Amino acid sequence: xxxxxxxxxxxxxxxxxIAFDVSIVYALAAGYFIFFFYGLKKGHSAGEMASMSxxxxxxxxxxxxxxxxxxxxxxxxxxAGTIPVIICYSSRLIRPSAFIFIxxxxxxxxxxxxxxxxxxxxxxGVICMSMASAMGVAPLYVGGxxxxxxxxxxxxxxxxxxxxxxxxxxxxxxxxxIKAMVKTALVPFLLTCALYLVLGIFSGGNGAAAGVEExxxxxxxIQWILILPAALILVLSVFRVNVKxxxxxxxxxxxxxxxxxxxxxxxELVRTIVFGYQAKGEVLASMMNGGGILSMVRVMVxxxxxxxxxxxxxxxxxxxxxxxxxxxxxxxxTSFGGILFVSAVTSMIACNQTLATMLTYQLCRDLEPDxxxxxxxxxxxxxxxxxxxxxSIAGAVPVAAIGxxxxxxxxxAYLYLVPAWNFxxxxxxxxxxxxxxxxx
Length: 440
Description:
There is one protein chain. The protein is mostly helical. It contains 22 helices and no strands. The radius of gyration is 22 Å and the shape is globular. The N and C termini lie far apart (46 Å).
């Protein structure tokens, strides 16, 4: 009974923060004290509870370091002109009849390179929505395509914070996971492309694309060499270079581009790295401002607090009773089916992708003993399901950033097709195994 009260209290605080638009950090901090006192009530000392908390944080220490590098990259790619160049060159591909399909692909590209759904939404996503308005393409369709695209890279980029978090939790290799993610998402990706192509044909858009290059040229020198920081991520990833070294190389290249091509001084470069990029014009500011080490502090706090729960849950047995019910569900609908079910619940309760991922792993790790398969199951479930919850910041923030209607989440086809396809695949495999063991 005490365990149920504790979980309900935490859930209530989370929902309250969402309802009153209060930062979820406060809910996580309150949750920590709730779980801390639960441990005390179960007979553990304060010292033991602190040790449990630290053990959870130590498990994700490498991710916290990577977050700092991500903050640097997101700022320097803006300041160096890397993101503007990618957007300018890719905008030349725009055709009204295929715009929804192209919007999906462009956001896939930028999200793979940057590894951030929010950053992609605020740059390429905003550009695509502006172009859609100019060409008369329905924002509902384009919004769905953008949301699908920004989470394509968030799921499988070598510099994605969510992908790196999954690797850290499951103790797996990021490049091995990416290879498996590509395989399990190929059919959903192709189906998504087909859907958006069909929608584009009947969308009725017939206008012309806006002058994107002219807009960026006011503040940036647009040259092909500025793609180098992004190209380094791709090339070094192909050769499976350590992620931190890959990101450090990109940071260095972007810093050089800032100084050589965009004429940033040493002081401006340091300010950009710490505080993020700040555009001079209002139009560009709404799309380009952001990044920097400080932009990752909130994310690091969320991950730090969430990971502190892991050690407490492990040693106090808070989730043990729930795990028994989850194991029973997994036996009926496959291990992936059980993880998918739990993902839906944790995504609705946690209201953010990070905590939902960690809770799902804590509750379901006994369902799948193979760590590599567990990593892919997480990527194919909670990572893409969290954005589909309307009140979760994973979906609400990108939708608000691009100015799309909330109903666009219903047309984020990729996010539905990935878990659906993999559930059908896993269920089909189990049925074949059962038939072999018990032939008619």
